[in-house]
Amino acid sequence: MNSKILSTILTIVLMITVSPNISAQLTLERLDSANRANNADQTQRDPINLIDNVWWVGHSEVGAFLITTPEGHILMDPTSPEQVHWVVEAIVKAGFHLGDIKYIINSHPHEEHVGGLAALQRLLPEAKIIASKETAAILASGGKTDFRNIIYPEGARFFEPVKVDGTIGHLEELTLGGTTLVAHITGGHTPGTTTWSMKVNDNGKEYNAVYMGGMSASGVERGPLLKNELYPAIAEDFANSFAHLKSLTCDVYLYARASSIELDKKLGQVGKQAVNPFVDPEGCAWYIEYYEKRYLKQLNEEKAAMGIR
Ligand SMILES: [Zn+2]
Fold first, then answer.
1. 30 vs 235: which has the higher pLDDT
2. Å from CA of 261 to ligand 1 middle
3. What's the rounded mean pLDDT across residues 92-106?
4. Residues 6 or more apart from 246 whose CB is under 8 A from it?
5. Distance (Å) from CA 215 to ligand 1 centroid
6. Which of 10, 85, 16 is nearest to 258 (CA)?
7. 203 CA to middle of ligand 1, Å?
C-alpha cells in the first residue's frame, strides 16, 4: 500500500479514536448536518490521493481538491479565509509546488468553499480563476448578491470580493496537461453552480468522475423555490440540473464535503477490495436521488402552503 494512504488511514483511525463527531458523520442522515458544517468545526487533514490524479487537500469535513497534471495543477474550492492555509499546507505536504497551480475553479460561491479565494489570488497571482458567469458575479460582490445572504441575513456569510480571470459555460472544457474537465452548469443551490466531470484511470480501467456542484435546496426560509424574486428560475434550474446529472455517467462522485462522499468510510476500504472504493456508481445515483427528493419535498410543501396543487 502506498505509504501516504497508509499514514492517512492511521491519522483517520486516530481521529476516530479521539473524536466522537467523526463516527457520527458516517450515518445516512449525515447530509443535512453536513451542509451546515461550520468553519469552526473543521480540523486539518493530511492530503489524500483519492484516485488517479485527484487529491483531497481539504479539511475534516469541508473539501478542496487538487487535480495534478504534468503541465500544472487545477485546484477546486479553496475553502474559507481562516482555513485556506490548510489547503496550501496539504498541497505542499503532498509534494506539489504551489507555483504549478494554473487554474482555480469552484463548485459554488458559498463562503466555506470560496472565501479563501482572494487570499489565494494574492499568493498565486499567476493562477487563473475560472468560474461560471453567474458565479463570477457573486464572487465579485463578495457574496452580497447571493440570494440566500439577502433573504436570510441572519445566516449571511460574506467574503472578500474576487475578480475572476475567465468564465466557462455549460459543457465547455478546461484542459491542462492531458486532463479535460467539462463544466456542467447545474444551477439551483446558487445560480451558476458548477458540476465538473473528468476521466480518471484506476487499475487499467477508465472511469467518469463527477465533481458535484452542490445540489441541496436550502429550505423555504433561506431559499424559497416558489416566488423567489431574487432567483425566479430556481425551481426550474434545480429540475433541469437533476435531469442533467442523471444523464451523466458517474462512476466516481466527489463533493466538497467529506460526509457526502463517505470519505472516511471509503478510506477504511482502501486496500481491502480490488476496486478503488471511490469508484461508487451506486453512491453517485443515491446522492443525486437524495437531493432530488429533498428538493421535491420542499417544492411540494411550498405548493401546499400556497394552495397550489
Ligand atoms: Zn453551499
1. 235
2. 15
3. 98
4. 285, 288
5. 8
6. 16
7. 34
Question: What pLDDT, on a 0 to 100 scale, did the predictor assign at position 152?
Answer: 92
* Residue 309: per-residue pLDDT: 80
Where in the sequence is the domain holding 23, given as residue range(s)? 3-306
Mean pLDDT of 96-108: 98
Q: How far is the CA of 211 from the centre of ligand 1 (A)?
A: 14
Going by C-alpha positions, the residue among 200, 210, 299, 198 that lies closest to residue 246 is: 210
pLDDT above 60 (res 67): yes
Nearest to 47 by CA among 7, 16, 102: 7
Query: What's residue 269's pLDDT?
Result: 95
Which is it for the CA torsion 283, 286, 292, 293, positive or negative?
negative
Cα 257 to ligand 1 centre (Å): 10
Q: How far apart are CA 194 and CA 163, in angstroms?
A: 17
Tell whether the torsion through CA atoms of 136, 141, 142 and 144 is positive or negative.
Answer: negative
Separation CA 37–CA 83 (nearest Å) = 14
Number of structural domains (the chain) is: 1
**Spatial CB neighbours of 172, under 8 Å, sequence gap ≥ 6:** 182, 183
Length of the chain counted residue by residue = 309
CA-closest candidate to residue 276, choices 13, 69, 5, 91? 5
Confidence category of residue 4, pLDDT binned at 50, 70, 90: low
CATH number, domain containing residue 263: 3.60.15.10
CB–CB of 214/184 below 8 Å? no
CA–centroid distance, residue 42 to ligand 1 (Å): 16
Q: Is the pLDDT of residue 8 over 90?
A: no
Taking the C-alpha atoms of 267, 268, 272 and 274 in order, what is their torsion angle to the nearest 10 degrees?
A: -30
C-alpha–C-alpha distance, residues 34 and 263, integer Å: 13
**168 C-alpha vs ligand 1 centroid, how far in Å?**
19
Residue 6 confidence (pLDDT) above 70: no
pTM of the model: 0.88
CA of 31 to the centre of ligand 1 (A): 12
